[in-house]
Amino acid sequence: MTILLVLLSILILVLLIVWAKINPFLAFLIASICAGFFLGLPLDQIAKSVQTGMGVLLGDLVIVIVTGAMLGKLVAESGAAQRIAGFLMNIFGEKYITWAMSLTGLVVGIPLFYNVGFVLLVPLAFTLAYQYKLPVVYVGIPLLAALSVTHGFLPPHPSPAALVAQFDANMGLTLFYGMVITIPTVIIAGPIFARTLKKIEAKPLATFQAEVRPESELPSIGNSFFTALLPVFLLVGTTLLSFSTAEESPLRPLVSFIADPAIVMLVSVLVATFSLGLKRGYRMPEIMEIYTVATKDIAMILLIVAGAGALKQVFTDTGVSQVIAEGLSTWQMHPLILAWLITAIIRVCVGSATVAGLTTAGIIAPLVTTMNVDPNLLVLSIGAGSLMFSHFNDAGFWMYKEYFNVSIKDTIKTWSVMETLVAVFGLIGVLILDLVI
């Protein structure tokens, strides 16, 4: 009966988002309160559970997500993303343009949130397609595959960062494992899949072609790469430092401090403020305005994350999480596959990768302690499932269709299939890693 009540709560969440068209944050709040009623939480405790869940999860994440948005916005506004794209094109040339697009999406997609990366880089892909007289879908899909993978797999993006916090995983280790899985997944869903798309007709509107900045206005390639990838260098470096420092060492507190993802992201933003901002002639008020716009861009993401934390806390306070864990532990299915499957189902129903990932986290979190499963791989398994088969209820589906100006049929044949390849091969990569580590 308990499982049925949980499923009813999730069904309410899905219907509120898909059928009633209610904002996901409000839908999470309503579903959390309904879950509290259904599962017998005392009335005077429901609001407290919702508030506690929101506060705990945001407390872990707000610095990482906000500073990540600031860094990404400055990388975009300063022209660093354009410099990286142009540099990679010069190396790869026309023959390997799809590989250049994939690498551009991977490098720039790490600090940029998905929607920002899409709006910034897709017009650049259009410009290159016109320049070399190549099919735009053939050029664009590898770029979007890389952006999707970074969005679903790699911290400090909101969903994987939130999952790391919920499962008490290690952000640096998750990022390292994620990169190992990301590279082959992007290759398959990007350049290899793109070979089948050369005959897809697309006529992007002139409005969406990039306004290319003069070379003289762009930062140097070294500055661009260093600043865009600094969070990766710091997260991986500090994680390795943590593993090499003994627990009893007097340096352990200092290492733990500098390895904290919030400190890593803050340092990255401060460095970028100088390297891409002040050093290149921006005034401090201009940089701060860029950061203000960036926080507006991700305000709703923060609220959705908070709402997911509320639902998870209700499940925890009612004891349902433990009941679910005990029930799922009897299933004859690998926990990583189970997590992926639940996420994929919610993703197809709801459309939002973030909502799907965070909803699954609330259901499956107890598996981390009751079953022998690596929390870092669990983050990646859910991240892969959250990208499964994007269709009509996903905003990304419509952004792709309108920007590339393709038919619904061709959108499904290209965009939806690409997302499915990312989800499936992402899971395969997770399972292979699980055999190795």
TrEMBL record:
<feature type="transmembrane region" description="Helical">
    <location>
        <begin position="174"/>
        <end position="194"/>
    </location>
</feature>
<dbReference type="Pfam" id="PF02447">
    <property type="entry name" value="GntP_permease"/>
</dbReference>
<keyword id="KW-0472">Membrane</keyword>
<keyword id="KW-0812">Transmembrane</keyword>
<keyword id="KW-0813">Transport</keyword>
<keyword id="KW-1133">Transmembrane helix</keyword>
<feature type="transmembrane region" description="Helical">
    <location>
        <begin position="134"/>
        <end position="154"/>
    </location>
</feature>
<feature type="transmembrane region" description="Helical">
    <location>
        <begin position="225"/>
        <end position="243"/>
    </location>
</feature>
<feature type="transmembrane region" description="Helical">
    <location>
        <begin position="337"/>
        <end position="365"/>
    </location>
</feature>
<feature type="transmembrane region" description="Helical">
    <location>
        <begin position="290"/>
        <end position="311"/>
    </location>
</feature>
<feature type="transmembrane region" description="Helical">
    <location>
        <begin position="30"/>
        <end position="47"/>
    </location>
</feature>
<protein>
    <submittedName>
        <fullName>Gluconate:H+ symporter</fullName>
    </submittedName>
</protein>
<comment type="similarity">
    <text>Belongs to the GntP permease family.</text>
</comment>
<feature type="transmembrane region" description="Helical">
    <location>
        <begin position="54"/>
        <end position="76"/>
    </location>
</feature>
<feature type="transmembrane region" description="Helical">
    <location>
        <begin position="377"/>
        <end position="400"/>
    </location>
</feature>
<dbReference type="InterPro" id="IPR003474">
    <property type="entry name" value="Glcn_transporter"/>
</dbReference>
<feature type="transmembrane region" description="Helical">
    <location>
        <begin position="96"/>
        <end position="122"/>
    </location>
</feature>
<feature type="transmembrane region" description="Helical">
    <location>
        <begin position="412"/>
        <end position="436"/>
    </location>
</feature>
<feature type="transmembrane region" description="Helical">
    <location>
        <begin position="255"/>
        <end position="278"/>
    </location>
</feature>
<keyword id="KW-1003">Cell membrane</keyword>
